[in-house]
Write a structure and sequence with these properties.
Blueprint: H1 3-16, H2 18-49, H3 63-90, H4 95-125, H5 133-154, H6 158-172, H7 175-185, H8 205-255
Helix pairs in contact: 2-8, 3-4, 3-6, 3-8, 4-5, 4-8, 5-6, 5-7
Length: 257
C-alpha cells in the first residue's frame, strides 16, 4: 500500500472515532453555518431581483425554495442509503449515527418540498394537490422518512435498531429513481427536468443562477444541520451509556451482601 493510501486510510479511521468527529464538528459547524447563511442571503436577494417568468409571473420565485427542498429530500435519503451500507457492510462506527441524524432533517426538507409544491400548484394547476406520479412518490418518501424515524426509536437494542433501520433504508431507496424519472415514465402534470439535462438547462440564466445559489446555500445548511445532529446523537448515546452503567452499578451494590 502506498504512503498516500495509508495516510488516507489513517484519516478515515480517525474520523471513525466519535470523539475526534465531535471535535471536528465543533470546529466546522460555526463556519458552515456562517457560509450557508451568507450564501442563502445572496441567493434569496438574487431571486427577488430576478425577472418574472413570462408564463408563471411572480409565482416562479417559489422555485428558488421548492427545487432545493426537493433536491435535498432525495440527496438526504441517498446519504442515508450510503450510511446504511456503512452499517451493514463496513461496520463503520458513525454510519448508524449518520443515518439516524439525517432522517429528521430529510423529513423536514421533504415536507417543505411538498408544501411549496402545493403553493406553486394552486395558481398553475388550479388545485393544491393531485395524485400525480411525482407528487405521490415524494409523499411516499416523506412517509418512509417518518417510518425510519419511528423504527430507530422503537427498539431499545442499538445494534438491532441500527440493522433494521439500515435494511429498511436500502429497500426504500428504490423510490429515489422513481421520483427522479417519474415525469419521463408516466404522463404527469409535473414539468420534466429543466436543470440537469444532457443537452443543458432549459431555464434562462437570469432565473438559473439564483436557483443554483439557493440550492448551494440550502445544501450547506443541510450539512450544517446534519453535522450538528450527529454530534448531538453521539452525546446522547454517551449519556445513555453512562446512565445504564450507573444503573448496573447501583443494582450490583444493592445485590451485594
Amino acid at each position: 500500500m502506498s504512503d498516500t493510501a495509508t495516510a488516507q486510510s489513517a484519516r478515515w479511521i480517525d474520523l471513525a472515532n466519535p470523539t475526534r468527529f465531535v471535535a471536528l464538528a465543533d470546529r466546522l459547524v460555526p463556519w458552515l453555518a456562517a457560509l450557508s447563511a451568507l450564501t442563502l442571503a445572496v441567493g434569496i436577494w438574487m431571486g427577488f431581483a430576478a425577472p418574472e417568468d413570462y408564463q408563471q409571473g411572480i409565482t416562479v420565485r417559489i422555485m428558488y425554495l421548492h427545487v432545493p427542498f426537493a433536491w435535498l429530500a432525495m440527496m438526504c435519503y441517498s446519504l442515508m442509503a450510503v450510511s446504511a451500507l456503512g452499517t451493514l457492510v463496513w461496520r463503520h462506527p458513525l454510519a448508524d449515527v449518520s443515518l439516524k441524524a439525517a432522517a429528521p432533517v430529510g423529513a423536514a426538507f421533504t415536507l417543505l418540498a411538498l408544501a411549496t409544491g402545493s403553493i406553486w400548484g394552486k395558481p398553475m394547476w388550479g388545485t393544491w394537490w393531485v395524485w400525480d406520479a411525482r407528487l405521490t412518490s415524494v409523499f411516499i418518501l416523506f412517509l418512509m422518512y417518518l417510518g425510519i424515524i419511528a423504527l430507530t426509536r422503537a427498539l431499545d437494542d442499538p445494534s438491532r435498531s441500527a440493522r433494521a433501520a439500515a435494511i429498511v433504508t436500502l429497500v426504500g431507496f428504490i423510490n429515489i429513481p422513481i421520483i427522479k424519472f417519474s415525469v419521463d415514465w408516466w404522463n404527469t402534470l409535473h414539468q420534466p427536468a429543466s436543470v440537469i439535462r444532457l443537452d443543458g438547462p432549459t431555464i434562462h440564466p437570469t432565473l438559473l443562477w439564483p436557483l443554483l445559489v439557493c440550492a448551494l446555500g440550502f445544501t450547506l445548511l443541510f450539512f450544517t444541520l446534519h453535522m450538528m445532529a450527529m454530534r448531538t446523537e453521539i452525546w446522547r448515546r454517551r449519556v445513555t451509556a453512562m446512565r445504564r452503567l450507573a444503573a448496573r452499578s447501583a443494582d450490583a451494590e444493592r445485590a451485594a451482601p
